[in-house]
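Input chain follows. Return structure tokens only.
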Amino acid sequence: MIFFSSLFSITVQAETCDDFTNVSMRKLHSEESVNFCEFKDKPLLIVNTASNCGFTDQFKDLEALHKKYKDQGLVVIGFPSDDFFQEENDEADTAEVCFVNYGVTFTMLATTAVRGDDANPIFKHLNAQTSSPNWNFYKYLVSADRKTVQRFNSRTKPLSANLTQAIENSL
């Protein structure tokens, strides 16, 4: 009976997520998926990433943001993308860059498109609200109520006063 109750509560939670985050996507180098409804009522920092970019070292500061603000509700999610031809061809290599080289513990998803008609559903929404990323490591801060999206370009460092102030305001 407890198992049935657990299943029912998960179903109810998924049904109450009625915005653009009602999407499941596969985690990087894993068969597990994450449903974005899990992050309901939490601000999201969504970043399109690449393993072989001049901005790749931003993973360190994104991890620092994750550690600093996760207990206050911020969810950092990385979307590796080869839209700018700077992502590894093998997903295992992308995972090594993220998890081994940079020690990433925040959610990283499987490589996906973030621009154009092939963009994943999350980025289709973000792009419609703001605009498509012009390069890797664009950051999108989505409010907990999903009504506000703020876009920060690649040159905005994750620990910059501008971005950290926006995160603190969203918490």
